[in-house]
Amino acid sequence: MSQQRPVSIVMIEDDEGHARLIERHIRRAGVNNEILPFVNGLEALAFLTGAEAPPAAGDGVGFLILLDLNLPDISGVEVLRQLKSNERTRRIPVIVLTTTDDKIEIERCYALGCNVYITKPVNYENFANAIRQLGLFLLVMQIPECH
User: Sheet containing 8-12: which strands, arranged edge to edge?
Assistant: First the structure.
């Protein structure tokens, strides 16, 4: 039987104030998982897809990504596109958390494979529930298949 790994939350958010607020509300919701903060998209992509990527990235289990679209180095949409087109990371759930409420942008993110799109400022109760539900989903997905 494989060892259950707790899900780590990869937060890609360049605004320190937003990052602190998001983390505070995650904790207030009772989610105690490790949060790995990144302030730009290229570093996060290197972490998840590079040669040094954690083994968990390869099976899409063990991570949940919170992705801001307005990053300083690369657009969040491009980060999402690269994650979902990479065999190692395409199954990792992605919550887009951004100030952009443009319908075309929202449709593009869903078309690329994001799981949830939340516009800031968010209703943090709904946000926390979405994280808890995806976390429970991930735990279920970690149960090994019986053959």
Answer: 35-38, 8-12, 63-67, 94-98, 116-119
pLDDT tens-digit readout, 25-35: 778 777 788 89
Q: State how far the Cα of 42 lies from the Cα of 39, in Å rounded to an integer.
A: 9
> Whole-model pTM?
0.81
Question: In this model, does residue 129 exceed pLDDT 80?
Answer: no
Fold of 8-141: Rossmann fold (3.40.50)
User: In the predicted model, is pLDDT for residue 143 greater than 50?
Assistant: no
**How far is it, in rounded angstroms, from Cα 49 to Cα 34?**
19
Q: Residue 132's closest CA among 116, 108, 114, 109?
A: 116
- Cα(75)–Cα(70) distance, rounded to whole angstroms? 6
Q: Give domain limits for the chain.
A: 8-141
